[in-house]
Model the fold of this input.
Amino acid sequence: MAGTDENAIAAEDDALYVLTAVLLTPAQFPSVLGDDYPEACAALGLAPLADGYGLVLGQDGEGARWTVVVDDVSLVAVAIASWDCGMEYDLSPDERTVVAALPGWPLDVAVAAPGLPAPHDPDPELSDAPLLSPPDTGTWGPAQRRLGADEIALQWEMWREQVDDAGFQAPAGGAEGGGTPDGTGGKAFPRHSGVRRALAEARAYVDSPPPLGRVRSSFATGDARILRADGPGWSMVARTDDIAFVLLDDEPGTVLPVGRGPELPGLLEALDKLAVRPL
Done:
């Protein structure tokens, strides 16, 4: 992240002091904004371009929140990678790459630019675009469910350690188990209608490809991949050589492990073949 004078770009004839940036591409987008890439773009009023966008979040000289959308995805990706490694990087996109300057932030940002007023909404007269604000994650719902799946994907080993394979049942059609985010996973569940529905909809993606970003594949250890699939009311995180976890809008705060069983390996292999992957 950065918030220095050297890391300022032009936006709406004013300087933007950059605080952070995120990618908005088919393979990598803030999933809190939607179940797929087109839905995430729609949340910002953007067309779902094949190459995607970079979102630069910062403050203008008065401290107001702005999101600058650029089409130089590679530049933003390099900046993010540098910051993640603890390195400084001057993110200053060329003005010709700026697609839009949108008032507000679509995500929570915990930092502020030094020497400026506290972050606040810009004057409505400065832009005709709707004011952006982060989705409500205070109560369980689609946004919170997707954030939960994000956390499992990032902390796979920690979540996997909480599941006792001996607790899985193996009814016809696959094995399912269940647990909660407080670490009580491994308790055997009967066949869960919500999990069955999520798996059935995920299987349907194989024959009828879903919108871009509904199924994503990222790196894991060895030859495995971490799969992320989303659909109306559900999210699934899986490792291609292991089990899966399902989260449901109808089950607040609950994480439901799905054992390998006879069908899950083939499903994960098929989903991985159609998934979008980071470049």
In short: Confidence is low (pLDDT under 50) at residues 1-7, 170-188. The helical segments are 37-43, 73-84, 142-154, 156-160, 193-207, 264-274.
